[in-house]
Amino acid sequence: MTVEPGPTRTSALIPAPRTTGPSAAGSGPAEPPGGRAAWCAWGIAVSVYVLAVIHRTSLGVAGLDAAHRFGIGASQLSAFSILQVLVYAAMQVPVGLLVDRFGPRRVLLLGVLLLSVGQLAFAFSPSFAPALASRAVLGCGDAMTFISVLRISARWFPAARNPLVAQLTGLAGMGGNLITTVVLAQALHTEGWTTTFTAVALLGVGVFALVALLLRETPDGSPAPGPEAPDAARPPVRAQVRQSWRQPATRLGLWVHFTTQFPANAFALLWGLPYLVEGQGMGRGEAGGLLTLLVFSNMFFGLLFGRLLNRGPRARMPIVLTTIAATGGCWAAALAWPAGRPPLWLLVTLLLVMGSNGSASLVGLDYARSHNPPERLGTASGIVNMGGFLATMITLFGIGVLLDALSPAGASSYSAQAYRVAFCWMYVPLLVGTVMILRLRRRLPTG
User: Fold this and answer.
1) Please, which pLDDT band fits residue 113 given cuts at 50, 70 and 90?
2) Counting runs of H as helices and runs of E as strands, what totals does the chain give?
3) Closest by CA position to 21, among listed 192, 222, 180
4) How far apart are CA 416 and CA 407, in angstroms?
5) What is the pLDDT, as a whole number, of residue 445?
6) CB within 8 A of 220, min separation 6: which ones?
7) Within a domain: 362
8) The whole model's pTM is what?
9) Residue 84: CA atoms inside 13 Å, Cβ hemisphere, count?
10) Are 81 and 400 in contact (CB under 8 A)?
């Protein structure tokens, strides 16, 4: 266990776990106990991540509404998600350092505050510029959630269960995506822009109170975060980042995250609904139904990959390479279909396969967790977690630029052929990432 500055609150509402007893002299601290109390702590922490996913994916169902509200084209529309993802990626290492030094609970509270402020500003933004700034604030708050939840999990669960808990965390986040796809999309058309996004922002009040009052960072009997940790015992920031980066598993984890996450992420964050509605001629209801397949598929793969990873690390690389090959193959079939309009069965298959992307990206974080010491786990996780969002940003930007270049008349003229060509851009980060994975995997003794 690391020693973090600052006290934490305890609560009688979370039962104290049974400890495994003091460790023998010189044998180091005992393994975290797990159990019901661990799941309670995880559940409170993961509620913040679910909220963050709702905020993050809210633009995915509001892209066409935003284009009409602010009078913007594809490049400017993609700027919303690009800036949000850019801020998210840029904040990963700073957030990892904050988690390592001040504890995940404080970082989670700050994240909820920023999410709520950013979404509230977005709800009342009268034009493109202030709306863009509000998405940057939202991205900053979003960046503080996932790494913090993983750090809470590492403190409460035995190491052998962490891959499964990480997959369950991603699965819970998909619950937030489902809320966005089903509830938020409908609310936008019944309640309007301002009312819908204001309601989403106010969800943060309850989550903030839940974390502030009930979340404990460590089990009873474990070293509690506190100010007694001397500053001299902490490595300098540059040294901590450098040591994390020098670990080959951290770099491999970053490229695994980079290559596996972005296709589904770019589709869900922004381009999925426009592609299905404008490029494939579907109604909003039918397109929204297809997007829910992405969510349910992600949940299925989260459980499947969690069980496979729980058996040992040798499952990591087969999961990663199979996901990359299946995703690239399905997109190739869809984009090569005559006139750029694949049949419904192929679109369904594509979405089901892309459901594996988010779960496979968590393998990258498992590489970082298993090869870095606890005192720099947050920093290493932050480095890895940048990968998928950098690739997402590159993809969002490339598709937006190509769509505008292929459709000079603006958003109303985006055709199936334009989407077909623009989506070919995804193969650039996919191929670069695959090459880097194959290169770095040789530096680790096991998969």
Assistant:
1) very high
2) 19, 0
3) 222
4) 11
5) 64
6) 16, 17, 19
7) yes
8) 0.71
9) 33
10) no
Residues 6+ positions from 75 with CB-CB distance below 8 Å: 400, 401, 403, 404
Is 326 within a domain?
A: yes
Q: pLDDT of 85-104, one tens digit each?
A: 889 888 988 888 888 888 89
Residue 21 zone, left/alpha/beta (φ > 0; ψ -120 to 50; rest): left
Domain that holds residue 438: 36-220+237-443
- For residue 390 the two structure tokens come to 């950098």
Residue 6's nearest CA partner among 94, 97, 103 is: 103
DSSP characters over 71-123: T--HHHHHHHHHHHHHHHHHTHHHHHHHHHHH-HHHHHHHHHHHHHHHHHHHH
Between CA 337 and CA 355 the distance in angstroms is: 21
Residue pair 370/248 in contact by the 8 Å Cβ criterion: no
Tokens read off for 218: 């460590």
The pLDDT of residue 92 is: 85
CATH code for position 292: 1.20.1250.20
Stretch 408-436: mean pLDDT, rounded? 85
**78 has pLDDT over 90:** no
Token pair, residue 147, equals 């790494």
Residue 22 lies in a domain: no
In the chain, how many domains are there? 1
Q: Would you say residue 229 lies in a domain? A: no
pLDDT average, residue stretch 131-145: 93
